[in-house]
Design a protein that fits this description.
Strand order of the largest sheet: 3-12-11-6-5-1-2-4
Largest sheet: 8 strands, mixed
Distance between the termini: 12 Å
Structural class: alpha+beta
Strand content: 25-35%
Number of helices: 6
Order of helices and strands: HEEHEHEEEHEEEEEEHH
Number of domains: 1
Length: 218
Protein backbone atom coordinates (compact mmCIF):
# COMPACT_ATOMS: atom_id res chain seq x y z
CA UNK A 1 0.00 0.00 0.00
CA UNK A 2 1.31 3.43 -0.94
CA UNK A 3 0.83 5.14 2.41
CA UNK A 4 2.14 8.44 1.07
CA UNK A 5 -1.08 8.60 -0.97
CA UNK A 6 -2.94 9.04 2.32
CA UNK A 7 -1.38 12.41 3.02
CA UNK A 8 -1.89 13.48 -0.59
CA UNK A 9 -5.57 12.47 -0.39
CA UNK A 10 -6.14 14.56 2.73
CA UNK A 11 -4.32 17.56 1.29
CA UNK A 12 -6.66 17.72 -1.72
CA UNK A 13 -9.75 17.89 0.51
CA UNK A 14 -11.33 21.21 1.42
CA UNK A 15 -11.03 22.36 4.99
CA UNK A 16 -14.69 23.44 4.91
CA UNK A 17 -15.78 19.82 4.38
CA UNK A 18 -14.06 18.52 7.52
CA UNK A 19 -16.39 16.87 10.05
CA UNK A 20 -15.89 16.00 13.70
CA UNK A 21 -17.42 12.88 15.24
CA UNK A 22 -17.36 11.26 18.66
CA UNK A 23 -17.81 7.52 19.13
CA UNK A 24 -19.33 6.20 22.34
CA UNK A 25 -19.88 2.70 23.63
CA UNK A 26 -22.22 1.27 26.22
CA UNK A 27 -20.87 0.67 29.68
CA UNK A 28 -21.07 -3.03 30.45
CA UNK A 29 -19.83 -5.24 33.25
CA UNK A 30 -20.49 -8.46 31.35
CA UNK A 31 -18.61 -10.30 28.63
CA UNK A 32 -21.20 -9.11 26.12
CA UNK A 33 -19.69 -6.94 23.42
CA UNK A 34 -20.57 -3.26 23.90
CA UNK A 35 -22.64 -1.44 21.30
CA UNK A 36 -21.37 1.72 19.66
CA UNK A 37 -22.95 5.04 18.75
CA UNK A 38 -21.63 7.80 16.50
CA UNK A 39 -22.37 11.49 17.04
CA UNK A 40 -21.46 14.54 14.98
CA UNK A 41 -20.66 17.93 16.47
CA UNK A 42 -20.77 21.13 14.44
CA UNK A 43 -17.56 23.14 14.25
CA UNK A 44 -16.72 26.66 13.13
CA UNK A 45 -13.99 27.67 10.68
CA UNK A 46 -11.35 28.13 13.37
CA UNK A 47 -11.88 24.64 14.83
CA UNK A 48 -11.91 23.00 11.39
CA UNK A 49 -8.72 24.83 10.46
CA UNK A 50 -6.96 23.75 13.65
CA UNK A 51 -8.02 20.10 13.29
CA UNK A 52 -7.14 20.05 9.58
CA UNK A 53 -3.65 21.47 10.02
CA UNK A 54 -2.92 19.41 13.14
CA UNK A 55 -3.89 16.17 11.40
CA UNK A 56 -1.74 16.92 8.35
CA UNK A 57 1.20 17.83 10.58
CA UNK A 58 0.88 14.62 12.60
CA UNK A 59 0.47 12.38 9.56
CA UNK A 60 3.37 14.07 7.80
CA UNK A 61 5.55 13.18 10.77
CA UNK A 62 4.14 9.65 11.15
CA UNK A 63 4.51 8.81 7.46
CA UNK A 64 7.89 10.42 6.86
CA UNK A 65 10.94 8.13 6.73
CA UNK A 66 12.56 7.83 10.15
CA UNK A 67 16.25 8.54 10.46
CA UNK A 68 17.15 5.27 12.19
CA UNK A 69 20.32 3.30 11.67
CA UNK A 70 18.06 0.48 10.52
CA UNK A 71 16.95 1.89 7.18
CA UNK A 72 14.10 -0.63 6.98
CA UNK A 73 12.28 1.19 9.79
CA UNK A 74 10.97 3.93 7.54
CA UNK A 75 7.61 4.61 5.91
CA UNK A 76 6.44 1.06 6.66
CA UNK A 77 6.75 1.62 10.41
CA UNK A 78 3.04 0.95 11.09
CA UNK A 79 0.51 -1.84 10.64
CA UNK A 80 -1.93 -2.12 7.75
CA UNK A 81 -5.07 -4.04 8.67
CA UNK A 82 -7.38 -5.02 5.79
CA UNK A 83 -10.96 -4.05 6.53
CA UNK A 84 -12.67 -7.06 4.98
CA UNK A 85 -14.94 -9.98 5.92
CA UNK A 86 -12.21 -11.40 8.18
CA UNK A 87 -12.12 -8.30 10.37
CA UNK A 88 -13.20 -9.69 13.78
CA UNK A 89 -15.01 -6.83 15.51
CA UNK A 90 -18.53 -6.45 14.10
CA UNK A 91 -19.25 -3.48 16.38
CA UNK A 92 -16.36 -1.45 15.00
CA UNK A 93 -17.35 -2.47 11.48
CA UNK A 94 -20.76 -0.98 12.24
CA UNK A 95 -19.05 2.29 13.26
CA UNK A 96 -17.22 2.47 9.93
CA UNK A 97 -20.40 1.60 8.06
CA UNK A 98 -22.34 4.39 9.79
CA UNK A 99 -19.59 6.92 9.12
CA UNK A 100 -19.47 5.98 5.44
CA UNK A 101 -23.16 5.55 4.69
CA UNK A 102 -25.33 7.22 7.32
CA UNK A 103 -25.96 10.60 8.88
CA UNK A 104 -24.99 10.34 12.57
CA UNK A 105 -27.02 12.14 15.21
CA UNK A 106 -26.03 15.78 15.72
CA UNK A 107 -25.23 16.94 19.25
CA UNK A 108 -24.37 20.35 20.66
CA UNK A 109 -22.73 19.04 23.83
CA UNK A 110 -21.12 15.80 24.93
CA UNK A 111 -23.45 15.96 27.89
CA UNK A 112 -26.18 14.98 25.44
CA UNK A 113 -24.75 11.47 25.23
CA UNK A 114 -26.56 8.97 27.44
CA UNK A 115 -25.13 8.29 30.90
CA UNK A 116 -25.15 4.60 29.95
CA UNK A 117 -22.46 5.33 27.37
CA UNK A 118 -18.94 6.70 27.49
CA UNK A 119 -17.06 8.56 24.78
CA UNK A 120 -13.95 6.61 23.88
CA UNK A 121 -12.86 7.85 20.45
CA UNK A 122 -12.75 10.99 18.36
CA UNK A 123 -12.97 10.82 14.58
CA UNK A 124 -12.21 13.43 11.93
CA UNK A 125 -13.60 13.00 8.42
CA UNK A 126 -11.81 14.35 5.35
CA UNK A 127 -14.01 14.35 2.25
CA UNK A 128 -12.94 14.73 -1.37
CA UNK A 129 -15.79 16.25 -3.39
CA UNK A 130 -14.24 15.19 -6.70
CA UNK A 131 -13.78 11.49 -5.97
CA UNK A 132 -16.37 11.23 -3.14
CA UNK A 133 -13.69 9.46 -1.12
CA UNK A 134 -13.66 9.70 2.68
CA UNK A 135 -10.74 9.35 5.08
CA UNK A 136 -11.42 8.80 8.78
CA UNK A 137 -8.78 9.65 11.38
CA UNK A 138 -9.35 8.05 14.80
CA UNK A 139 -7.95 9.00 18.20
CA UNK A 140 -8.54 7.07 21.42
CA UNK A 141 -9.69 9.56 24.04
CA UNK A 142 -10.31 9.40 27.77
CA UNK A 143 -13.59 10.98 28.93
CA UNK A 144 -11.84 12.48 31.95
CA UNK A 145 -9.26 14.25 29.77
CA UNK A 146 -11.62 15.05 26.89
CA UNK A 147 -14.08 17.13 28.86
CA UNK A 148 -13.15 19.82 31.35
CA UNK A 149 -16.35 20.65 33.16
CA UNK A 150 -16.90 24.12 34.61
CA UNK A 151 -17.97 23.89 38.23
CA UNK A 152 -20.37 26.37 39.81
CA UNK A 153 -17.71 28.01 41.95
CA UNK A 154 -15.04 28.16 39.23
CA UNK A 155 -14.40 31.18 37.03
CA UNK A 156 -12.93 30.43 33.59
CA UNK A 157 -12.37 33.22 31.09
CA UNK A 158 -11.02 33.67 27.57
CA UNK A 159 -9.64 36.71 25.78
CA UNK A 160 -11.63 37.92 22.79
CA UNK A 161 -9.02 39.10 20.24
CA UNK A 162 -11.50 41.46 18.60
CA UNK A 163 -12.77 43.32 21.65
CA UNK A 164 -9.61 42.67 23.69
CA UNK A 165 -11.88 41.81 26.60
CA UNK A 166 -12.16 38.78 28.84
CA UNK A 167 -15.39 36.79 28.66
CA UNK A 168 -16.69 33.91 30.73
CA UNK A 169 -16.37 30.35 29.48
CA UNK A 170 -19.50 28.40 30.37
CA UNK A 171 -20.65 24.78 30.29
CA UNK A 172 -17.91 22.41 29.13
CA UNK A 173 -14.48 22.71 27.55
CA UNK A 174 -13.62 19.94 25.05
CA UNK A 175 -9.93 19.14 24.53
CA UNK A 176 -9.24 18.11 20.93
CA UNK A 177 -5.48 17.65 21.12
CA UNK A 178 -5.52 13.84 20.88
CA UNK A 179 -2.81 11.92 19.02
CA UNK A 180 -3.72 9.98 15.86
CA UNK A 181 -3.99 6.25 16.60
CA UNK A 182 -5.34 4.83 13.34
CA UNK A 183 -6.70 5.93 9.96
CA UNK A 184 -9.33 4.33 7.75
CA UNK A 185 -8.25 4.76 4.14
CA UNK A 186 -9.30 2.83 1.04
CA UNK A 187 -10.67 -0.20 2.92
CA UNK A 188 -7.64 -0.49 5.16
CA UNK A 189 -6.87 0.60 8.70
CA UNK A 190 -3.42 2.10 9.16
CA UNK A 191 -2.54 1.54 12.82
CA UNK A 192 0.03 3.78 14.46
CA UNK A 193 -0.68 2.91 18.10
CA UNK A 194 -1.41 -0.79 18.64
CA UNK A 195 -2.37 -0.40 22.29
CA UNK A 196 -4.98 2.28 21.66
CA UNK A 197 -6.23 0.43 18.58
CA UNK A 198 -6.83 -2.72 20.61
CA UNK A 199 -8.78 -0.66 23.14
CA UNK A 200 -10.99 0.73 20.38
CA UNK A 201 -11.36 -2.61 18.61
CA UNK A 202 -11.70 -4.93 21.58
CA UNK A 203 -11.68 -8.20 19.66
CA UNK A 204 -8.37 -7.38 18.05
CA UNK A 205 -5.14 -8.72 19.51
CA UNK A 206 -1.44 -9.10 18.76
CA UNK A 207 -2.12 -12.47 17.13
CA UNK A 208 -4.63 -10.75 14.85
CA UNK A 209 -1.93 -8.30 13.78
CA UNK A 210 0.23 -11.25 12.78
CA UNK A 211 -2.70 -12.68 10.78
CA UNK A 212 -3.21 -9.29 9.14
CA UNK A 213 0.46 -9.24 8.15
CA UNK A 214 0.05 -12.64 6.52
CA UNK A 215 -3.14 -11.60 4.69
CA UNK A 216 -1.68 -8.34 3.47
CA UNK A 217 1.59 -9.92 2.33
CA UNK A 218 -0.25 -12.45 0.14
Amino acid sequence: MDASALLEQIQVTDMEDLKLFFVSRTKTQTTEAPSFSVFEMRTDDSVRSSLYLAAISQLDELLSPKEFLDFENSIEDFDVVPFNDDFPDQSFKAVIHELRNSIPAMISSLAGISSREEVFAMCIEFFDNDTMEKVFVFSRVSPDKLIERIHDNAVKVKLDPVSAQLSLVKDEIINLDAEIDCVFFRDNLLVFNKGHFEEMVEKYSSSAFELADELYSC
